[in-house]
Design goal:
The complex is a heterodimer of chains A (205) and B (198). Chain A has 205 residues and is mainly α. In chain A, 79% of the residues lie in helices and 0% in strands. Chain A is built from ten helices and no strands. Chain A is flat, with a radius of gyration of 28 Å. The model of chain A has no long low-confidence stretch (mean pLDDT 85). By secondary structure, chain B is of the alpha+beta class. In chain B, a hairpin with a 2-residue loop joins strand 2 and strand 3. The longest helix of chain B is centred in the first third of the chain and has 43 residues. The chains are: A mainly alpha (205), B alpha+beta (198). Chains A and B meet through helix 2, helix 4, helix 6, helix 8 and helix 10 of A and helix 1, helix 3 and strand 3 of B.
């Protein structure tokens, strides 16, 4: 029997090492979720939904707030409960907690413009127009045709007496969507203001 | 005034219900009986009965959840319909007879620093805005002569920042500056404007 030479062994060693490395790199630590844990989470979700549904049905704001708290404590990933809790906190002048609740809802529902818009409204009511406008713009980046955010952004520009091409584009979109005659009238007024301001800016340039 | 927007609480979905039902079913299922061949027929009957029971239970739960959803949706729609958006040009641009007084009042702490009393029009000029029949622009003409530019600039800033009547409402619609040749001072004329619903 001939002894294998270095030349014949070398490819085998390389192949073996490659297989070993491949095995190491592809081995991934897996986390198994036990059926009991999953069942527990599902039950918590259902209970949370029940609590939040009850909160949305009640006419008593304090009771509703309590129920929403219970819902988010039971299952903290329920974005609508956070959003609606934020709304109640905001009406109770608890702005800081409301902001936290909207922020959580924004993170849990990354495609939904509503909690972002609500956050904008919160800042708007506190008189922080520029910050409010940024949230309205963020809501519009989630849904460019979200009418409430369009109104909010345009209104913020009006109060700051600012006009850009974006403002004009927002007004055009809002006019396509608007059904409320009072808002439509106001938007037409803003359209004139913005166009006048933009033409003035161009003249000065 | 705009109001916050509520999000609809999701209904219990079929998947969630069946998952919960499935968990309970698995926990209660007498598997050892199934394993006994002698009782296979009995176990089959038990299984069929329990399946029928859980099916009807799930169906009624789904119906209940759907009914809940419809009721919630209806209430949300009702809530929104009650939130009639009472807004008009008068909401955003209400008449405020104290704006011109406020513009003049902001210089009270440093009125004496002006070379001569600033000239402020007795009342604002009013002009229509083309295309917006319900709105007009008020303009108050102010001028200061032979004064440091910092003083006039302070006056304009203070007027724009005045919280009670002017902030977020009054803007500069016109400004002209001309240097006084004999010194480093300026003659300044500016107009502060605001919109008012008719």
């Amino acid at each position: 029997m001939t002894r294998p030479t270095q030349t014949t062994l070398r490819p085998l060693v390389i192949v073996a090492l490659a297989v070993l490395l491949g095995a190491c790199s592809s081995s991934r630590r897996t986390v198994t979720i036990s059926p009991e844990f999953r069942a527990d989470q599902q039950q918590r979700l259902v209970k949370s939904i029940d609590l939040a549904s009850e909160a949305s049905r009640t006419d008593d704001p304090d009771k509703a707030m309590d129920l929403y708290w219970q819902a988010v404590t039971e299952y903290p990933q329920l974005a609508p409960a956070w959003n609606n809790l934020g709304q109640l906190l905001m009406e109770h002048e608890r702005a800081l907690e409301a902001a936290d609740a909207f922020q959580t809802a924004m993170q849990l529902a990354p495609g939904d413009p509503r909690p972002v818009y609500n956050m904008g409204l919160l800042w708007d009511r506190k008189g922080f127009r520029q910050r409010a406008r940024q949230y309205y713009l963020d809501a519009l980046s989630r849904d460019p045709y979200f009418l409430n955010a369009l109104r909010g952004s345009i209104r913020a520009d009006a109060l700051l007496y600012e006009a850009t091409d974006d403002t004009r584009s927002q007004i055009e979109r809002a006019l396509l969507l608007e059904k409320n005659p009072e808002w439509e009238k106001w938007l037409r007024g803003q359209k004139i203001r913005v166009e006048n301001q933009l033409s003035t800016i161009k003249t000065y340039r | 005034m705009e109001t916050t927007i509520l999000m609809t609480i999701p209904a219990r979905t079929l998947a969630q219900l069946s998952a919960v039902a499935g968990t309970a079913d698995r926990a209660n299922r007498p598997t050892h009986l199934v394993a006994l061949g002698a009782l296979a027929l009995f176990a089959g009957l038990v299984f069929a009965l329990s399946s029928y029971k859980s099916l009807s239970g799930a169906q009624s739960a789904i119906a209940r959840a759907q009914s809940d959803t419809q009721r919630i949706d209806h209430q949300i729609a009702l809530y929104h319909s009650l939130q009639v958006e009472e807004t008009s040009l008068a909401t955003y641009y209400p008449a405020d007879p104290y704006i011109d007084t406020a513009i003049e009042g902001v210089i009270d702490p440093y009125r004496d620093e002006f070379e001569r009393p600033p000239d402020i029009a007795p009342s604002p000029d009013r002009k229509d805005i083309s295309g917006v029949p319900g709105l007009e622009q008020y303009e108050l003409r102010c001028s200061a002569r032979n004064d440091p530019i910092q003083l006039t600039s302070r006056w304009i800033s203070d007027a724009l920042a005045e919280q009670e009547h002017c902030a977020d409402r009054v803007f500069v619609s016109h400004i002209s500056l001309s240097p006084v040749p004999s010194n480093q001072f300026w003659n300044t004329t500016f107009k502060l404007a605001w919109y008012v619903a008719k």
